Amino acid sequence: MATRRNLLQATAYSAALALVPGTRAFAEALRTRPIPSTGEALPIIGLGTSRVFDVDVDAEPAERAACRDVLNALVESGATVVDSSPMYGKAEAVSGVVAADLDVTDRVFWATKVWTNGRDKGIDQMQASMRLFGTEQIDLMQVHNLRDWREHMPVLREWKQEGRIRYIGITHSRAKAFDQVEAVINETDLDFVQLNYSLAERDAEQRLLPLCADQGIATLINRPFARGALFRQVADRDLPAWTTDIGVESWAQFFLKFVLSHPAVTCAIPATRKAGHMLDNVAAGFGPLPDDAQRRAMIDLIDAA
User: What is the pTM of this model?
Assistant: First the structure.
């Protein structure tokens, strides 16, 4: 996103770069939240791979290097979650290749999805995901956009019992499907729900985030920048002076800290193929988060933009 590059503050970017390689203090400071079903601590910032990792790393060395740098920035900063899907073209394969390049396959919390119709096709797809990631265990398997979820969920439960999957969940990225998502949450036991939530798309606040909190379900947040729409809204604006109180040094951190300040949010997974943006995103997981009054000010600012 060219507009975001212009908004990054050079001094903050340089400082983040200096902190990452091998600096353990940086990793130890990253906020985590517990996965309710087990209590396992999960870093609150991860990486989404939709579109950005759908590249031909064998034919394009520069693209391979870019994806490798992003993943390196993720894991060296103490973050772990990489979210992908067979729907994302080559993203699973690219994620697995660059993780192997860096020798960090075992340091990644692998989250992916089953996205097909029918039990047997779902099994084949999940087995393919394991091969592509180079692992015999997927940390989180999700039914993508609820596609044929009644067929897939029994298999996910079987695989979880066998240790091939650690957590199971469902996903969606459109508010118009939230009624269906709510029905599935109320009908079956889940470890995770992935949904869209941002300053531009706040529908999840109404029922789904409170419901997940009530039922002890972790949440992954996709589209925290509303696919770049938020950056376009503030392209000609400076950050409010008060945001220094919560450690905000870029609009990306502003948007992410709003999402992360909701108590029902476990981890946000913005997508990027730029290492500098990955570092900027992870920086939102450090320092204070907005209180209720600051969240209201954030909402008012975007509503007025």
Answer: 0.91
